[in-house]
Amino acid sequence: PTHHMQSKGVCVCVCVLTCCVQAVTFEVTENNSTCIKAELSASFLITYNTSTSTRTAQVPLPDSARVDTDRSTCGTNDSSPRLLVTFGPGHGLGLSFATNTSLYSVTNLTVQFNLSDSATFPEANSSGENVIFSMSVRAMFPSFFFCTKDRRSGISHSPAPAPAPSGTPESGFYSVKLKNNTVCLLAQMGLQFNISYLSKSHNEVVRDVVNLDPSLTNSSGSCDANRATLVLTQDQRTILNFTFSLNSTTRKYHLSGLALSANWSDMTTFFTASDFSLDYLRSTLGLSYMCNAEQTLVVDANFSLNTFKLQIQPFQVTTEQFATAEECQMDQDQMLIPIIVGAALAGLVLIVLIAYLIGRKRSQAGYQTI
Ligand SMILES: *[C@@H]1O[C@H](CO)[C@@H](O)[C@H](O)[C@H]1NC(C)=O
Ligand SMILES: *[C@@H]1O[C@H](CO)[C@@H](O)[C@H](O)[C@H]1NC(C)=O
Ligand SMILES: *[C@@H]1O[C@H](CO)[C@@H](O)[C@H](O)[C@H]1NC(C)=O
Ligand SMILES: *[C@@H]1O[C@H](CO)[C@@H](O)[C@H](O)[C@H]1NC(C)=O
Ligand SMILES: *[C@@H]1O[C@H](CO)[C@@H](O)[C@H](O)[C@H]1NC(C)=O
Ligand SMILES: *[C@@H]1O[C@H](CO)[C@@H](O)[C@H](O)[C@H]1NC(C)=O
Ligand SMILES: *[C@@H]1O[C@H](CO)[C@@H](O)[C@H](O)[C@H]1NC(C)=O
Ligand SMILES: *[C@@H]1O[C@H](CO)[C@@H](O)[C@H](O)[C@H]1NC(C)=O
Ligand SMILES: *[C@@H]1O[C@H](CO)[C@@H](O)[C@H](O)[C@H]1NC(C)=O
Ligand SMILES: *[C@@H]1O[C@H](CO)[C@@H](O)[C@H](O)[C@H]1NC(C)=O
Ligand SMILES: *[C@@H]1O[C@H](CO)[C@@H](O)[C@H](O)[C@H]1NC(C)=O
Ligand SMILES: *[C@@H]1O[C@H](CO)[C@@H](O)[C@H](O)[C@H]1NC(C)=O
User: Fold this and answer.
1) How many CB atoms lie within 10 A of CB 146?
2) Where in the chain is the domain with CATH 2.40.160.110?
3) Which numbered atom of ligand 9 lies nearest the CA of 180?
4) How do residues 149-195 score in pLDDT, each as one tens digit?
5) 48-57, 248-257, 319-328, 337-346, range with greatest mean pLDDT
6) Number of CB atoms found within 10 A of residue 28's CB
7) How crowded is the C-beta side of 170, counted as CA atoms within 13 Å?
8) Where are its TM segments located (predicted)?
9) How far is the CA of 30 from the centre of ligand 2 (A)?
């Protein structure tokens, strides 16, 4: 009917705020690998026409919002990564992302509302017509969330997980406490030893790949101003020490030492390997270091440590939770785009006001580009 095709005035205010409403987390994955992780708070103010007047509805992005997996994508050479979130009866929010080597940005914002949803838009003069519009935006994410390009130094990325008999190790959560029981170091990771030793049973040097079992592992250690140590002990037969060093001038920390002592039943002699001049897992004071991808930390010719889904914070632990993560280069290479809207982003308030008229027939009410 023709009256459905009348002009309507729509005013939309999109405000992506840090604290006005609670954040909802969305993840886009492809082949089991996360490429977009977004923590968003949003509230939409929509002014719409009723048959006699205009009204304004405030619509927060609800907890029930879900990623539309069919229309979200990690991107290809020709298309950019895109997150599409749907909520309620036919409402949606779409964000497209762009990246160059140093910055991530949102380049396109699409909002869609179903004005027939009378619970949200009472008395809307619409009858089934959707309001859809999109626009170019430029919202940059502060570069300190992303580590510098030198992150690759010293860390080699193992190729596709070799079919190790032991499989991917289980992730364990470890912490170190001060004498007064305050947590001072947090770590979550899966660990795999790649170790060569003289075997009793084979009477020759064997190379063994063995997972650390978190359920049999105890953690201890110490925390000083510029040095933190995490000691993982399994069965008294395996002792693994991590030493982290902080440069208080540059406010950067890194894994400077790794030491393993092992006395496994098939070993002819007590095994030790250590290096205290390493430069792995570099991050910034106040942040945690995170690397979901597998990393190989080479200690010497006989011992290297493979880490999986690692997150660690050896300094400035203020609560029993990790601070904002600085991501390793390999994860970034896999296009993980964290949009962390939290305290650190408190300065970012993106308010977009759009007022426009849809003076078009329903059949043409497609995407409006502003
Ligand atoms: C409501 O619709 C009328 C046309 O029916 C239009 O002239 C008016 O601008 C609209 N209201 C607003 C606030 O845009
Ligand atoms: C994703 O992981 C699941 C469970 O680990 C596995 O069954 C599935 O084959 C994986 N899919 C791809 C594409 O790797
Ligand atoms: C996912 O796996 C498919 C089939 O193996 C491949 O064509 C596609 O490029 C992969 N996507 C990503 C993002 O790796
Ligand atoms: C929309 O508003 C016009 C008056 O502006 C009215 O004639 C029409 O019936 C209304 N349509 C609906 C579906 O309420
Ligand atoms: C994507 O781009 C890379 C580098 O430019 C190229 O090696 C690859 O073949 C391209 N893939 C497709 C599917 O075009
Ligand atoms: C719009 O909302 C109405 C009323 O809730 C619903 O019947 C209709 O299916 C919705 N449209 C879409 C595209 O979801
Ligand atoms: C990345 O993009 C931003 C904004 O367009 C620009 O200022 C910056 O120089 C770019 N960086 C690189 C390495 O191209
Ligand atoms: C934004 O994305 C939508 C959906 O992919 C597309 O239709 C629209 O043309 C894009 N707008 C701009 C300004 O790039
Ligand atoms: C525990 O001791 C550390 C310094 O040794 C201090 O900073 C912290 O406030 C203490 N925590 C509690 C709960 O007393
Ligand atoms: C173990 O180390 C050896 C020698 O560096 C290497 O060839 C092999 O790929 C490693 N295996 C695993 C599962 O990391
Ligand atoms: C801290 O870093 C600076 C700059 O890289 C360096 O000159 C200084 O020696 C470092 N301090 C320590 C204690 O390592
Ligand atoms: C590991 O750390 C503990 C406690 O700091 C220390 O006693 C032990 O000697 C260290 N082991 C190695 C191999 O460095």
Assistant:
1) 22
2) 2-145, 172-329
3) 1
4) 223 322 222 332 333 346 899 999 999 999 999 999 999 999 999 99
5) 248-257
6) 22
7) 9
8) 335-358
9) 10
Give the Å distance between the CA of 17 and the centre of ligand 4: 35
CA-based torsion, 10, 65, 59, 339: positive or negative: negative
Ligand 6 near 114 CB (within 6 A): yes
Helix runs in the chain, H state only: 329-333
In testing the pocket of ligand 3, which one of 29, 30, 76 has its CB within 8 Å of the most ligand atoms? 30
346 pLDDT more than 70: no
Looking at the domain 2-145, which fold is it? Porin (2.40.160)
Residue type, 162: A
The CATH number of 172-329 is which of 2.40.160.110, 1.10.760.10, 1.10.3720.10, 3.30.505.10?
2.40.160.110
Note the pLDDT of residue 90. Answer: 87
Closest CA to 33 of 305, 294, 297, 367: 294
153 CA from centroid of ligand 7 (Å) = 23
Longest dimension (CA), the chain: 92
Say if CB 119 and CB 113 are below 8 A apart.
Answer: no
Least confident of 62-76, 80-94, 108-122, 264-278: 108-122
**0.70 exceeded by the pTM?**
no
CB 310 within 8 A of CB 297: no
Q: Rounded distance, CA 31 to CA 202, Å?
A: 39
